[in-house]
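Hi,

I'm pasting everything inline rather than attaching a file, because the server keeps stripping attachments. The sequence lines come first, and each chain or strand is labelled.
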Amino acid sequence: MNDQNKPPNKEPSGPQDELKKTDQEIARKEKFQRLILGGVDPFPHKVEKTHTASEIVAQFPPLTKEELEANKIQVRVPGRIVSVRQMGRATFFHISDGRAKLQVYLREDVAGPKAYELFSLFDIGDWIDVKGVLFKTRTGELTVLCDAFTFLAKCFHPLPEKWHGLQDVELRYRRRYLDLIMNPEVGEVFRVRSAIVSFIRRFFDQRGYVEVETPMMQAIPGGALARPFSTHHNALDIDLYLRIAPELYLKRLVVGGMDKVYEINRNFRNEGIDSEHNPEFTMLEFYEAYCDYNDMMNLTEELLCQLSRALFGKEEFPYGEQTISLSRPFRRVKFMEALSQYSGLAPSRFDDRKGIIEFAAALAPEKKPSTFGKAIDIIFDKHVKPQIVQPTFIINPPKEVSPLAKAAKDNPDEAARFELMVAGMEIANAFSELTDPAEQRKRFEEQAEERKKGDEESHPVDMDYVQALEYGLPPTGGEGIGIDRLAMLFANRKSIREVILFPLLRPKE
RNA sequence: GGCCCGUUAGCUCAAUCGGUAGAGCAGCGGACUCUUAAUCCGCAGGUUGUAGGUUCGAGUCCUACACGGGUCACCA
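And the predicted assembly:
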């Protein structure tokens, strides 16, 4: 920020909204002012630390009491004060760096009466930089015997209760920083998420894939069937859409000869919000030339199996009440077989298209299924999806709901496509990419017909993409994997909001 | 968007049939130099989400609204 953009000078040193302050907030502000009067720098620039709390907790506990006494290990460690136990002229407190807690022992006769008095101006929640020697208490807890400390930052609000933490889910999402301070397992979830993403990058990088970034703002929002967010570019005076998928751009790159590409980035879909859907979500998409969807299945198994090993050291892990096993090979079952198996409808009944539409209409009358494709989607969602716990490739769904996929080799009505279901969630979706420009154009036109009939989620016509195909897309396998759902799976969370740091909420007040 | 549930002190939760809104933690004052949910004594802290209504009297019953959660619809 340059100086001209700065807001007019306000008092920088305190919480906003003076009127609403509680007695505790007033007390904290007063202590802060007394610290400043005592010559303390209220906003220091830098900490010359020797360790973080996590590093100390990871490194030194194996040393015995005697070894610690002999070695006199000097440390200087910053952290947030998370608990205080004061006993006259001595005080124990814990500091935290967000991951690990470290105990500090402050004695008046060690730190000096002046410093000891100064510490009474610190509150739970304040940041402090502690200097001292490591030792072990009578109960064996590794502790810093503090001889000096520095003020780092004031916490002007009282923290939530130490024993129960912060429970209110709304507050947890709106003030995720409080959630992270109070609930250490939350930080762990996002470390798992980060580990997943970096593992995926390594996995594809090692296989010669190139990570690319394609437009988030698109004139034609293609690559999936969903309603987009729209926006406007002023200088060009054009309407644009936030992308619902990167697919068509990634395949343009394969046309250009980038034969292995992947992208991990945000997609935006203007749809409902629930425990599996956030309007912005993160998608991995990857495309490999000369491959078909069978190769993608093998690659997916390898990725997930290795990912499980990297995270847990094994191929099994808990999800809710279940134990998920990612051992290869995953079950593969044809869409129509899964449909009749789980719905209890005999395979022959699916020859009666009208009858199936009526069956689906009875299952979900609000949806008013008009086509066979929509009808079997309903039956799939109601009967099949919730029952699949262990990883299962649902292969060769009907072609009509797959406008960007090749037809299956042995059946022109089926798509060369699979969806990977785990724990009732759709984790991945892949197909042998449609490479025939004339066929692609025809499929777009069919979708355009659907749109005219009022289907807002039909695929828009993208003639520029057809033109790209006319330059020749080699046989290509492509896949999308929902990163948020993967994170839910591996972090054992039932809501997508638990794996998105700042899920979309309605603004308050 | 429909339906169900929730919203009480900074936080976590109580409050019986509609009858003076309580506790623990956190805070403030005091005691205490190995505590760890420290302990002990005392004190303070509330427009019960918002706006109406019923009633002698509403945290409690009714209506509307706000926000959140669940579920259904839509979707990945």
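Chain A has 16 helices and 20 strands.

If the labels don't parse on your end, tell me and I'll reformat.
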